[in-house]
């Protein structure tokens, strides 16, 4: 076996989803990971995708997902398939001893989630979900501010909103044509697709401490297939902290996370995907005060800029590759943090869904 | 009687609350309204207030509220007393045939609210609550945009947050020393003081159509006196529109109203009291789109500026004075819009409180 530093993680991709184009581009930016195989149910589609996205000439292009998993030159797979197909292919990947980077939301239920992560864990394989924003250096910078009590005080509440108008992006029949509108493919709808990020951002800000009570908001909307297209929920922690989120396919873009502390507020207007790739911003507000007779107020807003040489998806892939490399070379073990944070996020989504199905009853977590 | 144009409405004020200083300053800017009397439980306090705030030399200063109401030279009163004292003094004002401009929240219960507004109505007197922002020309400008379907599409959801750290403004013992922490004075706490504006903003954006379901968020916080110091709720309309608001005395200032439509978003970061007195802004977002491979997105933000010659509280007083003048001169009648919007706002607050008291049960409006 070659020395650790020269090991390159060999990646396979299952499917030609549009998000895979972004991942391919990111892989090509990284020396530590190499794209060696791509599979699609249609060989022609895979070949066209490979050509259009500049796959390396020696990358193998298959007309099935199984061939990618059977390929012994593949160390790890990226799975951007619809959620409804995850269990089947992740269990197969575990059987074939491939590490897995899985698009979100990972599952429709916690049972599925546990099946997948425990299968990988038993084989000593790394699991990571495809949540990119936590890998951006902006997140690390914000985390330092949030957890500096002198600066921020106590985090008291969080508001997350991720809305985007699917009709604008995919046309008026998106609900039939896009996987996000189909119960067997993306059964959690806007809750899984957009709410996932809100919940992940909320848990991230609270260092992944779980809430003890969750309540869905009234007014959940469904499409004709019964898939959630607009929803929201409020979470409560034992010490009185709260977080509220909204996730809708029906409005103009809103992608905001606001973390409200006793002495300061962090406000991120593009928390999931920064508007620009090379520099991301966030606002820090502190020390607002009423002016004379409350006829106005001082708003002290500092705009922080955080540059990044690599886009956040490349930083995610680099983190994944380093863990896989460690396992391959015997110097590391699967990092349990990644399945853990993924399971916590998934658990909240499923509890919100449960509350929706029970007329917005509060659900207490055991 | 003098001709209508030369009639000046003669205002009395009950109490020396700090908000009264702002109103006095506004009255002094307006030719159509004249401050003729001020009463406080302490004559010395009233005299000191009169001197400090430049009351006209001929304004009468009384050591009781009753003397203001008994003064036949007073046409209308502004009542900035704590909510718990409103019913008593508004009923007396109605008896003494004074028009009433009442600080918010008007009441602790809908019964109180109805008592006050019907007493005034029976006497042919105008009622208006002290919500200033709706009188700012910015609100009229935003209303035009919101209700232009070509520009905005359908309003789908609203998010209102009004938080302010009372400890920063009034010190660590605010909960004992400030009226907002005391059950008999401001019994609705942050729900009445801050949530009032969120609910008013939400109803305003929806042209005062009432929701059909209201649910309080879990995690309501109370002070030692049992007064709400942090809360939130979500409202649902029959056609699936929703609105979520938060109101807390425990965080750094947030004063945001976001109205989310299918094609556009209005975002107002200082909706209750504009940061600056002479010019207020709001943001209009439209036509956001993902860039290639969703590696970023275009955010199209237009910042609108709306200038005003008079501060919003003076515009409120002018509107009130014009109505009172019409009634006095016999050319107008009490405008029922103002008690109506006030009652609707109050009703929502009381339903939110009911939901809080019933473990966040959804309350359906009859």
From TrEMBL, chains A, B:
InterPro entries: Gfo/Idh/MocA-like_OxRdtase_N, GFO_IDH_MocA-like_dom, NAD(P)-bd_dom_sf. It comes from the Eukaryota. Coiled coil: none annotated. Residues 152-262 form the GFO/IDH/MocA-like oxidoreductase domain. Residues 10-128 form the Gfo/Idh/MocA-like oxidoreductase N-terminal domain. Gene3D superfamilies: Dihydrodipicolinate Reductase, domain 2, NAD(P)-binding Rossmann-like Domain. Belongs to the Gfo/Idh/MocA family. This is Gfo/Idh/MocA-like oxidoreductase N-terminal domain-containing protein.
